[in-house]
Amino acid sequence: MPNSPQSKPTTFSPSAGYAAGFAMPERAHAKSPKGLTREVIESLSAYKQEPAWMLTARLNAFEIFKQKPLPAWGGDLSKIDFNDLYYYVRPDERVQQNWDDVPADIKETFDRLGVPEAEKQFLSGSGAQYDSEAVYHNIQKHLTDKGIIFLDTDSALKKYPELFKEYFVTVVPPADNKFSALNSAVWSGGSFLYIPKGVRVDLPLQAYFRINTERMGQFERTLIIADEGSYAHYTEGCTAPAYTTNSLHSAVVEIVVRRGARVRYTTIQNWSKNVYNLVTKRAHVYADGLMEWVDGNLGSALTMKYPSAVLLESGARGTVLSLAMAGDGQHQDSGGKIIHVAPHTSSMIISKSISYGGGRASYRGLVKVTPKAEHARCFVSCDALILDTASRADTYPTMDIRARDCDISHEASVSKIGEEQLFYLQSRGLDEANARSLIVNGFLEPIVKELPMEYAVELNRLIQLEMQGAVG
After folding, report:
1. Cα 88 to chain center, whole Å?
2. CB 24 within 8 A of CB 109
3. Distance (Å, rounded) from C-alpha 292 to C-alpha 231?
4. Is residue 97 classed as helix, strand or coil in its secondary structure?
5. pTM tops 0.70, yes or no
6. Segment 38-50, tens digit of pLDDT
7. What share of residues in the chain are helix, strand, coil (percent, to 5)?
8. Are 269 and 237 in contact (CB under 8 A)?
9. What spatial distance separates the first Cα and last Cα of the chain, rounded to whole Å?
10. What percent of the chain has pLDDT over 70?
11. Distance between CA atoms of 390 and 357, rounded to whole angstroms?
12. Concatenated DSSP letters for 39-95?
């Protein structure tokens, strides 16, 4: 793996309406050859100076990846060429804890995306990943004094090897699916968060992921452990330049919510339309714990993502709030999964999708109640709004109920903007474009209101940009 920095200017420009689609010159302190082989994985692990057990885990996952077929359901994956991707691009020599020490061109990228300003205003800590590695990671000192660990995942492996090994691949094993196997083989970057017993992190912690290199595969691995009675809100955002070639984002998120703990994980992904976004996110929730997923999906060519919670002990709770917007050339296949393993557990899945300009939005959900999960309760609601005749919405709910005494309900709706609604709003002085926009915002309000104020404002702005021309 070469160690010399590389710089290659690019001529690609942002797509219309996608403000984050700008591309910086390619930067590579180290870069793997194109394609995925055993030698690439061995070189990657050696370059990172990982322990022997991690190399073994990577190679075992690689064998699983080769044997696993592509999913036969969901979106069209035929355009993904695993041999036409770069699996590791390191932009700088080390992770910085001072924003001023980040290389100027990388800093400019995140400055334009508003990342450092967000940290100053309303975050407890922040991380920034550029291609395959974190370039910045920091947390307020008073939180580290409480025993909180917030590091990029590679650094956590080196500094806390026993804690890392105890939890790694325990929630999402490589054999779960082809893309979890791929991530386990070539993972790089991501966040590691440990919150000790009884500790609360009242302001969110944030990570921001940026793909810059063309034909890039980004495979961050995020691991969060919330010990008994603790609380944290972790947020992430994602963008990429608007290239004419395809890139792959295949992350894995593993979360452990111990007794009485609460974790909220908020995602606003705004990938460019050349990115395939194929992600596995899952939490194990113990007695009286609460896992909350707030999942917003904009952009990408194809998203397949279903945040899930496995409710392992009595009193465990899980919620999934999913938002998807599918425009021209996009397929958003998203939703949520809840597995009730123990009695007296409860869950909720709320899904909202908008399709416009020929886009396709699919809700795909699973509620499973095992025979021992008596008195489980679950409510599922999936609503789709279609803005024109060229667009499409699908619903694929699965209910696997094995317990005799439980309360499970599901409702779904597909609608379009009604002429009566438009007439009423226009009679109140709004033009048609603003009337349509107001209806769309009202449709999404149950999910947007769950975001921190700054994120809600940003999401509304992104929605308006994304839908320019689609709502009037």
Report:
1. 19
2. yes
3. 11
4. coil
5. yes
6. 999 999 999 999 9
7. 25, 40, 35
8. yes
9. 51
10. 80
11. 7
12. HHHHHHHHHTT--HHHHHHHHHHHHHHHHSPPPSSSS--TT--GGGSB--EE-SSS-
Distance from chain centroid for Cα 445: 21
- Tell me the sheet residues that pair with 310: 284, 339
Residues in the chain: 472
Q: What is the Cα–Cα distance from 82 to 433, expressed in whole angstroms?
A: 43
Reading the block at residue 284, the tokens are 């194990």
CA 147 – CA 225 distance, rounded (Å) = 13
Q: Work out the burial of residue 197: count CB atoms within 10 Å of its CB; fewer than 13 is exposed, 13-18 middle, 19 or more buried.
A: middle
From 340, 414, 403, select the one nearest 374 (Cα to Cα).
403
Residue that the structure tokens 């789709």 belong to: 384
Cβ-Cβ contacts under 8 Å for 60 (sequence gap 6 or more)? 174
Task: Kindly report, residue by residue over 300-342, the tens digit of the pLDDT.
Answer: 999 999 999 999 999 999 999 999 999 999 999 999 999 999 9
Task: Report yes or no: 430 and 438 within 8 Å, Cβ to Cβ.
Answer: yes
Instruction: Kindly tell me if the per-residue pLDDT of 241 is higher than 70.
Output: no
Distance CA 162, CA 83 (A): 34
Res. 177: pLDDT tops 70: yes
CA distance 157 to 335: 31
pLDDT (tens digit per residue) in 417-450: 878 888 888 898 888 888 888 888 888 888 888 8
Residue 356, both tokens: 């416009």
Residue matched to tokens 């123990």? 342
What is the number of other CB atoms lying within 10 angstroms of the CB of residue 457? 12
Beta strand residue intervals within 169-243, DSSP E = 191-195, 205-210, 217-218, 221-226, 231-239
Look up residue 183 and give its amino acid. Answer: N
C-alpha to C-alpha distance for 353 and 372, rounded to whole angstroms = 33
Res 9: pLDDT: 29
Burial class (CB in 10 A: 0-12, 13-18, 19+), 83: exposed
- The answer to which of 149-153, 250-254, 295-299 has the lowest mean pLDDT is 295-299
Half-sphere exposure of 426 (CA within 13 A, CB side): 11
Domain boundaries of the chain, sorted by first residue: 6-305, 419-472
For residue 408, give every residue at least 6 positions away whose Cβ sits within 8 Å of its Cβ, in sequence order, or none.
Answer: 367, 369, 376, 377, 378, 399, 401
DSSP assignment of 343-394, as one string? SS-EEEEEEEEEE-TT-EEEEEEEEEE-TT-TT-EEEEEEEEEE-STT-EEE
Structural contact between residues 388 and 356, judged by C-beta atoms closer than 8 angstroms: yes
